[in-house]
Design brief:
Helix content: 10-25%
Number of domains: 2
CATH architecture of the largest domain: Sandwich
Shape: elongated
Number of strands: 13
Largest sheet: 5 strands, antiparallel
C-alpha cells in the first residue's frame, strides 16, 4: 500500500526520466565524439605517476648509501651511511667489522651525528654494553676471534628540525686502543 507522498515522488521522478533518452547524446557519451584523445591523456597522466618510483628503484633519485672501508691494526672496518639526508627521513647504517686477530673487547664508537638530531629506532645486534665518550656513543660487544665478522645495523630517523652537517664517523677500538676509523660527514637538508 503506497502512501500519497511517495506516489507524488514516484510520479515526479518518472516525469524527469521520460525525456532523458531524448536529451542524451550517445555519440558524445558512448562513442567519445570530439574527445577521442581524453582516454590517452588520462593514461599518460597515470603513467607519469609511475616515473618517480621507477627512478627510485634504479637509484637515480633517493638516498643512496656510501660504502666506506678501512683496514687497521688487526681489523677491517666497513661503514655504509648516506651522504645526504632530509628531515623526517628513515635511514639505515651498516657497520661491518672483520677481525684479523683476536679483539678481546671490541668497541664501536659512533660519532655524535648518529644521535644528535636523530631518533634511534633500533641497533641490531644489541650491544653487551653502551657508554658515552664525550659526545660519542660507545657500543661494546663480545670478543672476536680471527676471521670473525660482526655486522651491526642501526635504524634511525632524522628529526624534522635537524639541518646541517652531522659527524657520522665510526671508530673500532679494542677497549681503548684504536684499531680503525672511518671519517664521514652526513649533510641533513631542510
Amino acid at each position: 500500500m503506497r502512501r500519497t507522498g511517495n506516489l507524488a515522488l514516484v510520479q515526479k521522478h518518472e516525469m524527469l526520466m521520460t525525456g532523458l533518452g531524448e536529451r542524451l547524446d550517445l555519440g558524445r557519451l558512448r562513442d567519445l565524439r570530439g574527445r577521442r584523445a581524453h582516454p590517452w591523456i588520462r593514461r599518460g597522466l597515470l603513467a607519469l605517476l609511475a616515473v618517480p618510483p621507477l627512478l627510485a628503484l634504479t637509484g637515480a633519485i633517493g638516498q643512496p648509501t656510501q660504502k666506506l672501508a678501512t683496514a687497521g691494526a688487526g681489523a677491517r672496518l666497513q661503514v655504509e651511511v648516506p651522504d645526504v639526508l632530509r628531515g623526517g627521513l628513515l635511514w639505515r647504517a651498516r657497520i661491518a667489522v672483520r677481525a684479523d686477530r683476536t679483539i678481546e673487547h671490541p668497541r664501536i664508537v659512533l660519532g655524535a651525528g648518529f644521535f644528535e638530531g636523530m631518533q634511534v629506532n633500533t641497533i641490531e645486534p644489541s650491544p653487551a654494553g653502551e657508554a658515552s665518550r664525550g659526545p660519542q656513543v660507545v657500543l661494546s660487544y663480545d670478543a672476536l676471534q680471527p676471521g670473525d665478522e660482526l655486522v651491526v645495523y642501526l635504524q634511525l630517523q632524522v628529526n624534522p628540525t635537524t639541518t646541517g652537517e652531522q659527524d657520522t664517523s665510526v671508530q673500532l677500538d679494542d677497549e681503548t686502543d684504536r684499531l680503525a676509523r672511518v671519517r664521514h660527514v652526513t649533510t641533513v637538508l631542510p
